[in-house]
Write a structure and sequence with these properties.
- With 271 residues, the protein is mostly helical.
- It has one domain.
- Helices cover 73% and strands 0% of the residues.
- The radius of gyration is 18 Å and the shape is globular.
- The protein starts with a helix and ends with a helix.
Length: 271
């Protein structure tokens, strides 16, 4: 019933899209439709498991930053609460609004948001938002994550809420574009977007696993393991490559890709 080839394809899609501003949720929904896979609890659990692979990849890329975040600061004396640079208050301000909203609106989002047409419109509207942010953002006051203020972190978190309410909008895209509009450089916005993905995705994935662990039985372990490994490897490659070429790949490029993808589905899949 569950084909290893499907696991490889979905794992590749998850790894490619989880941290890029193209919407991994949207791509997973569209990929599932193209593969002819019906929505069921096992497949839902599978998509959660492969997200763990992507989380592990991003944690590996930012392992030094994670260590530095929790290293004891000589001035404050508290690990995680250094006075200069990124600390846990920045992280909390950026993730608590989206986590709270996701908890309150989870039933509405699952019932109405995870459908093909709303996702396609989210790709289009999100793309327009990216172009707007790139054209009209103010001069950067934060060149890297350590220069972000609490206000900037909070508003980046509020922009992230758009992606919570509208699957397909893109969590990373909304935070990057929001960061630009709040005065973060493209690199600072991207780094912060990737970094806060670790706790928010870990919490969200852990919550979902509590509801679906019973579907991870021995007869689907190979299917799950394949998707997990593929997602981890691909996500690690994508993030490393994105950070290396960050000055050459703009949000506008991703917006154009989103427009093309939405148009192709409207024209050839949903007609």
């Amino acid at each position: 019933m569950y084909d290893i080839l499907d696991a490889i394809i979905i794992g590749i899609v998850e790894g490619l899209t989880e941290f890029l501003p193209v919407s991994s949720t949207g791509h997973m929904i569209l990929t599932q439709q193209l593969l002819g896979l019906q929505k069921d609890p096992v497949l839902d659990s599978f998509k959660i498991i492969i997200q763990l692979g992507a989380i592990l990849a991003i944690a590996l890329v930012y392992r030094k930053r994670i260590y530095n975040l929790f290293a004891r600061d000589g001035e404050s004396g508290l690990p995680g609460f250094r006075k200069n640079g990124l600390n846990l208050i920045h992280i909390a301000l950026a993730i608590v609004p989206a986590m709270g909203l996701a908890f309150v609106a989870k039933d509405f989002i699952k019932d109405d948001g995870f459908n093909t047409v709303p996702v396609l419109w989210a790709l289009i509207v999100g793309g327009l938002f990216f172009i707007f942010a790139e054209k009209f953002h103010p001069k950067a006051t934060a060149e890297d994550m350590d220069q972000l203020t609490y206000k900037q972190a909070l508003f980046i978190g509020l922009f992230q809420c758009i992606s919570v309410l509208w699957p397909g909008f893109s969590r990373s895209g909304s935070t990057m574009a929001g960061g630009l509009l709040m005065g973060a450089s493209y690199k600072a916005a991207a780094d912060f977007s990737f970094f806060i993905a670790i706790p928010i995705m870990t919490v969200a994935t852990g919550y979902e696993l509590l509801d679906s662990y019973q579907y991870m039985t021995s007869d689907v372990m190979a299917f799950f393991a394949t998707g997990f490994i593929v997602s981890f490897v691909v996500a690690w490659i994508v993030v490393v490559a994105f950070l290396r070429f960050i000055q050459k790949i703009t949000l506008t490029h991703f917006a154009i890709y989103r427009f093309i993808l939405a148009a192709l589905f409207f024209l050839f899949v949903l007609r």
